[in-house]
Write a structure and sequence with these properties.
heterodimer, A: about 240 residues, alpha/beta, Rossmann fold, 6-stranded mixed β-sheet, 7 helices, 10 strands, B: about 400 residues, alpha+beta, two-stranded antiparallel ribbon, 13 helices, about 55% helix, elongated
Chain lengths: ~240, ~400
């Protein structure tokens, strides 16, 4: 029996606006097993990015439960959530989100700073990952000196540096041309083959086809799921 | 981890050099001003204190006069209303430990081809003790010199320099000099006392026995009269009691009716000197307080810039949170930056303050004292200002919502 990395039940999220509560997610249920490769699709405003932020522990749901890797996120203290973001999840953003002032090496090594790793070990691990994404030559360059595709590789290296179980990617190819997109997706494919669970958001079908499973959001609900795990298949003994 | 954060703080400081420099400038000026002002204030205090100890402690001076001459009053000390017998009576008062009658005047002094005009003080041997004035060479005169009006003299340093030259090749002891054309043997050379609070050179003086001055230098006013009587009390505690006793004793001796004007006046020299010292201390405090205000302004400058910096780097904070920074990591990062700015500013400020103090002492000859305490105070105040004014912006950064921070453009 495979362990589930993500288990979301009856998730609701509403934003408070002047005009009253504005619901974004309405009763979302999703299970992602370890080693899965999920593409979340849907039009703008369908709630997929909000869902992604909740999965990444950057945002909290209004109601419902989210169990990540066996732990209920809602019950965690702030520092524990920070630790989860640091060590369980690797986040890849559409806009790369690198620190402009830091070298690529320092950018990749940054999560290790918060994990309390020594400087030598940080640099060793970061340069290893830069090599893996093919950027070891640019180790001491700064983000503004390299292309968008290269920046996204640096972001992936940073996401991987703490050996997370789960990679969350929010439109990782949204700012890239199609050739570069394919290169980036090839990296994700490789990572999934290594056993890392990947959840990515995209609105491009050809990108989504890289994933093993496609989940479609519409108006705050999941309307289509190509690989839904039957609830009977899920063991709850690990919770 | 801490060293990594220090490195980042250093890096952040270097990212916008002009802004960092301007922020720091508030601190630099504040600390520099505190160090400089305290150096000047403490220097003034020290020089006042030295003047006081040079004058002698618990001192009164009884001046003769002011007399009334057909309604016009002349200055104190001009009319010979005090005499040696008054002095002898004062000795008997409770709480009085020393009395020295003094008469003074100007004299033209000659040695070989040099001559000099200086103050001549005629007094008794006790004067030296009361003033706490020692000799750097030779011997003081004795009671028998006073009794027999011998022609001996103690020379102040300035007088020695003018009569015997700047170099020490002539030993003045035992030499015969002429004061107002009369020969005097130099018995000793007085210790240097420096200037009085009002800048008079106390070393430009010759001390001779009282009787010698009265009979052989200044002619005969009224026999036995003196210009003033120096009185030393036993301690600070009996000062006011002694002052009252002096007044009543002299009123009685001079047959002054109650309510009538005295023909003498008693001055408390220690009180005057103490008030000068108090003034110097107040000045020093005031200067320090004014300078501290600029430290405060510098601190507010740091807070202002840190708030701007937090706003500007909202996205960066979001990124850091997304990859696992805890609230306290973010807090620490911004706090360290603020502390670093204030400490570096403080070090530069100390350097500038000390340099300024040295320049002031070189160009104005005024005494300045840079104490390690003032530097330490400035440093610790600056560091705490960094913490105090850095905390609010840092906490603001740490409390940011990660998702809102990431969305910030």
């Amino acid at each position: 029996m495979q362990q589930s990395v993500i288990e979301v039940n009856h998730l609701y999220k509403a934003y408070q606006t002047a005009a009253g509560d504005f619901p974004v997610l309405k009763d979302v249920n999703l299970q992602v097993l370890s080693g899965d490769y999920v593409a979340i699709m849907g039009p703008s405003g369908s709630g997929k990015s909000t869902f992604m932020n909740i999965l990444g522990c950057l945002d909290m749901p209004t109601a419902g439960s989210y169990v990540l890797d066996g732990y209920a996120v809602a019950t965690m203290a702030a520092d524990q959530v920070a630790k989860v973001r640091n060590q369980t999840i690797g986040f890849v953003f559409q806009g790369f989100n690198l620190l402009a002032r830091a070298s690529l090496l320092d950018n990749v090594a940054l999560p290790l700073v918060y994990a309390g790793v020594s400087k030598e070990a940080r640099h060793a691990r970061a340069s290893l990952l830069l090599e893996k994404v093919g950027l070891s030559k640019h180790m001491h360059s700064h983000p503004n000196q390299i292309s968008g595709g290269q920046q996204q590789r640096v972001a992936i290296a940073r996401a991987l540096v703490n050996q997370p179980r789960l990679i969350l990617a929010d439109e990782p190819t949204g700012n890239l041309d199609s050739t570069t997109s394919e290169e980036i997706m090839a990296i994700f494919d490789g990572l999934n083959q290594e056993g890392i669970t990947i959840v990515l958001v995209t609105h491009e079908t050809d990108i989504a086809e890289h994933a093993k499973r496609q989940v479609r959001f519409l108006d705050g609900r999941i309307v289509q799921d190509t690989g839904a795990v039957a609830s009977t298949e899920i063991g709850h003994d690990h919770v | 981890m801490f060293s990594a954060m220090l490195g980042e703080a250093w890096h952040a400081m270097g990212a916008n050099r002009l802004r960092t420099f301007l922020t720091m400038l508030g601190m630099v000026i504040g600390v520099g001003a505190v160090v400089l002002m305290m150096a000047i204030g403490q220097g003034a205090e020290a020089s006042v204190k030295r003047s006081i100890s040079a004058m002698g402690s618990h001192l009164f001076v009884v001046l003769s006069g002011p007399p009334r001459m057909g309604g016009a009053r002349t200055a104190t000390g001009n009319a010979p209303s005090l005499n040696v017998r008054d002095a002898n009576a004062i000795v008997e008062l409770y709480g009085v430990v020393g009395v020295a009658p003094v008469t003074m005047g100007k004299g033209q002094v000659v040695y070989a081809s040099n001559n000099w005009n200086t103050d001549i003080i005629g007094t008794t041997a006790e004067y030296m003790d009361i003033r706490g004035w020692g000799l750097s060479a030779g011997y003081p005169f004795s009671t028998s010199d006073t009794r027999s009006a011998t022609r001996v003299a103690l020379l102040g340093k300035t007088v020695v320099q003018n009569l015997f030259g700047e170099e020490d090749d002539v030993d003045p002891i035992g030499k015969t000099i002429r004061i107002n054309q009369r020969p005097f043997v130099v018995l000793g050379v007085l210790d240097s006392k420096g200037q009085t609070l009002d800048g008079r050179d106390q070393d430009d003086t010759i001390i001779v026995p009282l009787t010698t001055a009265q009979r052989k230098l200044f002619g005969n006013q009224l026999p036995g009269t003196v210009r003033q009587i120096m009185v030393q009390a036993e301690s600070d505690n009996v000062m006011s009691m002694v002052e009252d006793a002096l007044n009543s004793l002299l009123n009685q001796r001079h047959n002054i009716r109650e309510g009538a004007d005295s023909d003498f006046s008693v001055r408390n020299l220690t009180a005057i000197a103490n008030s000068a010292a108090e003034t110097a201390r107040t000045m020093s405090l005031l200067l320090g307080a004014i300078a501290s205000v600029s430290l405060l302004v510098g601190g507010i400058g740091i807070m202002n810039i840190m708030l701007v910096s937090v706003t500007e780097r909202t996205r960066e904070i979001g990124i850091r949170m997304a990859i696992g920074a805890r609230e306290r990591d973010i807090l620490m990062q911004f706090l360290l930056e603020a502390i670093m700015i204030s400490i570096v500013g403080c070090l530069i400020g100390i350097a500038i303050g000390v340099t300024g103090a040295v320049l002031v002492s070189v160009f104005t000859q005024a005494e300045v004292i840079v104490s390690s305490a003032s530097v330490l105070i400035a440093f610790s105040v600056a560091a705490s200002i960094g913490v105090f004014f850095g905390f609010y912006p840092a906490r603001k950064a740490a409390r940011l919502n990660p998702i809102e921070a990431l969305r910030y453009q």
